[in-house]
Structures are given as structure tokens and as C-alpha cells.
Amino acid sequence: MSAVVFSGPTLSPREAARLFPEAQCLEPASQGDVWRACERRPRVICLIDGYFEHVPAVTHKELLWALHEGIVVMGAASMGALRAAELAPFGMQGHGEIYRAFVRGELEDDDEVAVAHADREHDFRPASDALVNLRATLARALAEGIVSEPTRDAIVRVAQRMFYAERTLQRALQECGVDPTLLAPLRSWARSNWVDQKRADACELLGHARRSQLPAQERPPFPHTDAWEQLVRENAARSSVDAQAILEELQLLGPDVFSELLFAATRRALCDELAHRSGGANPVELAHALSLAQLTTVLADLGDLERVHGRADRKRAALAGRAAQSASNEQVALYFTQRLNRPLPADLADYAAGVGFGSELALRHAIARELAFLRG
Q1: What angle do CA 94, 96, 97 make, to 5 degrees?
Q2: Where are the alpha helices (DSSP H) in 69-147?
Q3: CA 304, 308, 311: angle at the middle one, nearest 5?
Q4: pLDDT digits (tens, 9 = 90+) for 12-47
Q5: Is the pTM value of this prediction over 0.70?
Q6: How many other C-beta atoms lie within 10 A of the C-beta of residue 287?
Q7: 65: closest CA among 86, 93, 39?
Q8: Each residue's pLDDT tens digit, 63-77
Q9: What is the separation, in whole angstroms, between the first and last Cα of the chain?
């Protein structure tokens, strides 16, 4: 994998993928996400946006772990600019005006880059204005003679006092105490001259990550602490559960899809092996040693991991607390004829083995869960 990008309200994952098509573009990072990304062995991790407040934020320690593993780690614009400024002495690379302002000490508070935003289905669209963008817009307005320095300062002061989720330029103009007639030119000008500094910095970061050769860098030491070991245990358990649930979703799609994924995962395993060895690799041994992580990574490369992962999570939540059941012959026939639109296999045990189930019973359990989930 070339790169992993975490973004959201600053630059939606869809936009990030358009700018950096070689990368896997994910939603904002939360605690453990960077650690899990390291398992995919990317050459670079680009942190733009991260969750906070209601979700544990991405930790400094997992970014240090990525650096220790020899992965280039870059940050800009939002959470990425904050973490890059804090971890620059350890090798994390920062880009953009916002990052440089934090390094110079001109900006200090996390609140400068925080915004409220929509969910994944609405591309994480911002619902408030970042203070750094408001500052940049007013700086341009001052330079172009649209607003006076005292008026600019009054607007910034009131914007600073606002809760980040309620902060907008229009609200700041309403509450700054300046004569509305003096603000009319600014209101009109700002509609077509808004400065989205966060977006500009994010684009700068992705452009640099895509174009540069990213030479090997010195790996910082990494002390293992109790807190770190706890984070690893928690996220390793989560990764294992998630991967198993995703694998079942893939197996239930039938042998055509599963075989294609298995072949792609085998090819990927060979590439991974050859990248770390000077000699050849035994494809048969590698195929039998395939991990769930490699299968899910291939799915991520195909751009379908989030959909399958989301369905696996919804199924697990819907069936939580229900006793395990085995599908009857009638239910098995229903699954094949209506769900897969194919005839019932002559040998169900042989079919189960072909899509990676350990036994016919395991397949029957999976079919029972699938039908129960579809029934709601």
C-alpha cells in the first residue's frame, strides 16, 4: 500500500482519493486507527483530520510507533497540524501555514482548528467555521482594505469566545458590536473570498506525499509503557473481531467472489514477502498462511472495506445476545436460490471448504445469522 490518509471535514475522503488515488483514504482518525494502519505497512501515513471530544483522539504514542516502524508520518491542517507540531522533534513532518503557525507559537489552542461536521453519509461536511479560516479570511480582507484593523480585531475576539461548534463568520459579525453599515462590504466580499486555509494546507500535504520520494528516515526509540500495551491489546482484539466478521461476510457472497479475493490476497502476500526477502517465496505456503488482515487489506484496496465492515458491525449488533443456530436444509436452499441466485451445491461440506469455512456446520451457522439479519 502506498499511503493511508485520514481526513474528513477539512477534505472529504472522496476528495482526498481524487487528489491521491494511490492512497487508501479513510475517515478522521480516532484512537487506535494509526496503530491499525501500521499493520498494512504503508510507506506514508497522512493525518489531516481526527475525531475528538466524544471519541478518544488519536494518540501521540501510536504516531511515534509508526515512526519507529519506519513509516513516514505527515500532518497538516487540523488534528494533523497539531500532532505534527508536537511531534516534529521525533520526526513527524508537518506541512502548511497552520502547522507553521503552531510551531512558531502564533497559534496555541486546539480550538483554532476544531469544527462541527456532518457524518460519513454527508461527506463530513463542516457545519461551523474553523477559527484559523476565519483569521485567514479577515487577514486578506484587511490587506485588501475591506475591513479596518480595529474591526478585524473585534470580530476575532468575539469569534474566539464562541464554542467551536457554533462559530461562524456570520454569527461573529452579528455579535462583534461593530456598526452593521461598516460590516456590509465585508459580508458581501466574504461570500466569494473566503479563505479555506485548512483545505489549502491539506492539499499541500497530499501533493507533497504523492510527489516526493520519501527517503528512509532515522527511527526514533520507542519505550513500551503499560498504557501502550493496553492500547495494543484493546485494538488487537478489536481488529481480530472485525476481521472475522468481515471474513464471514465475504464467505457468504459465494465462491466466485471469495476465490477472487483469495487470489488477490495470495498475490499481495507474495508481494509483501518478496519486498522483505531477496529470494523467492513459496506461493502454496503463502496461500495457506494468509491472514484475515491480508484479506481485509485487499478489500480495502478494492475500495469496499467500509461497506462490508459496516454491514458486519450492523449484523453483530442486531444479533447480539441471540443463541447460535444452525440453518435447516430449507434455509440453506433459500440462501442459495434467493440470496446467491444459484442452485444448491451437491456437496455442502465441499462447498463450505471452498469458501474457507472450517466445516459444513460453520457454514450453516453463518447462513442462519445471515437470514436472521435479513429478517430484521
Answers
A1: 120
A2: 79-87, 97-104, 131-143
A3: 145
A4: 999 999 999 989 999 999 988 998 898 888 999 999
A5: no
A6: 15
A7: 39
A8: 999 998 889 999 999
A9: 37
